[in-house]
Amino acid sequence: MAAVRALWGSTHPGPTLVVTALALALGIAVGLEPWRLALLTLSVFAGQVSIGLSNDAIDAPRDRIVGRTDKPIARGDVTERLAWVCALGAVVAALVLAAPLGFGMLAAHAVFLASAWAYNAGLKATVFSIVPFLVSFGIFPSLATLALPDPRVAAGWGWIAGAALGAAVHLTNVLPDLEDDKRTGVRGLPHRIGARASAVVAAVGIIVGAVAVLVGASGGVLAEVPPVAWGFFVAVLGVAIATAVLALVRPPTRALFRLVMVAALLLAAQLVATGGAFAA
């Protein structure tokens, strides 16, 4: 049981559950049948487990150098070998679960996962560190629409909203670790532009995502936006402003990333409130 707990702690449980919840919400929004919804949710969950485990397995030597006692693999609570076996098993499970939903869904999820694994494998240390987040989160809304019996990619504004949110997630997730990363040679985009600039750009990304959903779902006719969608838009806007203010008045902390996770859930709720318009 101790090994299971350590493995779960290495999956980045918070983001894993949030992304899984997003997939479930989007599947509900497009009206997936129960079995399709279940496969979509389980596939995304398995994929997120593989991403989290591979990230911590790759980072374990660096985490030991900087004394990351919050990382189970770096602490020695579970071996890197076991983490790799589980990560590879999870990615296979993610693709197997996606296969019954059609080739389009399988291919899209494979690209999503390959992009995320590329980040873990080395892109995180380059100026292109944001690219996997733009790609994976941009594709994300299409996982639900491609799981439909009549598969299709999500509307363009859905891609924009997803990519904008992905940028915000990346730019805030690494902020508390900038100094540790510097010691181990990791210099992604946030490291190069600085903590405060990263947080402000992340806040702008959140707003861009919310505006894309609001305008895209209504076809630009804001008078047709239902009150509940306006409510979620205002809530996302509030989170974005809070993120920017915190970044400007305090040193960067994990609180900024948590705010972006809250924004992700609110943005998903905003998408659900569109009645699956991103599938049109």
How would you describe this protein?
- The chain has 280 residues and is mainly alpha-helical.
- It has two domains: 1-103 and 116-122, no CATH class; 155-280.
- Helix content is 75%, strand content 0%.
- It is globular, with a radius of gyration of 18 Å.
- 53% of the residues are buried.
Q: Which key phrases capture this entry?
A:
mainly alpha; 13 helices; 75% helix; globular
Q: Looking at the structure, what is the overall shape? A: globular
Rg measurement, Å: 18 Å
Number of strands: 0
Identify low-pLDDT runs. Answer: none
Percent of residues in β-strands: under 5%
What letter string, H or E per element, gives the SSE order?
HHHHHHHHHHHHH
Total count of helical runs of at least 4 residues: 13
What separation lies between the terminal Cα atoms? Answer: 46 Å
Overall average residue pLDDT: 88
- The assigned structural class equals mainly alpha
The major β-sheet equals: none
Helix content: over 70%
- Structural domain tally: 2
